[in-house]
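quick one, four chains, predict together pls
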Amino acid sequence: MERKEISKSVLKRLPGYLSYLKSLPEGSATYISATALANALGMGEVQVRKDLAMVCDGGRPKIGYLRERLIEDISQFLGYDNTTDAILIGAGKLGQALLGYGGFEAYGLNILAAFDAAPIAEQTQEGKPIYHISQLESFCRANNVLMGIITVPAMHAQQVCQQLIDNGIKAIWNFAPTHLDVPSNILVQNENMATSLAVLSMHLQAQIKEKK
Amino acid sequence: MERKEISKSVLKRLPGYLSYLKSLPEGSATYISATALANALGMGEVQVRKDLAMVCDGGRPKIGYLRERLIEDISQFLGYDNTTDAILIGAGKLGQALLGYGGFEAYGLNILAAFDAAPIAEQTQEGKPIYHISQLESFCRANNVLMGIITVPAMHAQQVCQQLIDNGIKAIWNFAPTHLDVPSNILVQNENMATSLAVLSMHLQAQIKEKK
DNA sequence: TAGATTGTTAATCGATTAACAATC
DNA sequence: TAGATTGTTAATCGATTAACAATC
């Protein structure tokens, strides 16, 4: 398989295919067609086929794709098979919820530790260490961490972001509802609840109006 | 101002403008230009101008937009000024973090209560009630709730989703990492962590490869 | 063979960007 | 007036969809 340049829109759909494929019971058919996948996820079948073409080499006409193989290919493409170490800054409610969420391992994400300006405990219920923010530097150097998760209040996010970059972080998952200024080689992925809410409440407004 | 049809992409950018405008200190200039906004958020200025044109009626050439007015217009457009009531299903870690997060009020979202198949407490630390899932129906009827937040494990999400729809919910904020099948008049907004992670880890893979 | 499916090439659609006229 | 800015019209770009040939 030749690895072509992949667009962000395709990339964002891949986890959906993967999770659906994985959710199929053990005894399911060995092969699955793009048509079946598309129907299950409410998408166009051509789109599914094109997306799959990016990550695996070929289904078989009239039969479809080898399910197990497809799972493997997508997982590998998304890097789920080799884990990424990350640290989390801001051990508040949201931060602790993320620390406690066991599900990230399935995505190859391993949160090593949390940092906070005023740690309330030495570790979480699950045993993940919570350090004072002053330990950030030495920890990053020692563990060669590349991903940082920001769950501090918006007010402090930019400053924390800068600290992360200074310590070698290359990718930032930002839960703070604010824009972060970063150099072009650093990637910020905003988990923006406000954005989702905007879409939802616009839909409700339209529905309410319609009813009148 | 004539309310035109707004695209999702524009809609998703509006909260960003709003939060930046609100973050400006009290004593800031009365007017702000699209150019200034664009620079601050790292966007194209034409795009900002076009977006703003959707929600407010006109800035003044050479001067810009009235900052206060812009905040008001975007807030109103996004429906932040009239609150939406919501209920949350699944009072696990993530559910409780969302229940406890005070910031949603600023977005006009009011989570009335949580429901769970096995409630571990009668209410959260913050005093939000946690009911048994069997109470869902009567609660929805009594309070005319239109938005539901799903924070149950993926396995149960579709079933919970159906219950919500049966009880009159029109918009669903889905935190479960799974696809939900719904009728076309119901909106599902997926808060998909896997999607974000895919983008982030792809970036890291590219960086690591580059280094070699 | 007929039919279901894949994969590719072309057409469409929508969103972003560029160019420019209008305004203060 | 000159220059900064707005808002609009046209061009570009990218992604989705449609049409179709290839395959088993």
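Chain B touches chain A through 59 residues (CB under 8 Å).
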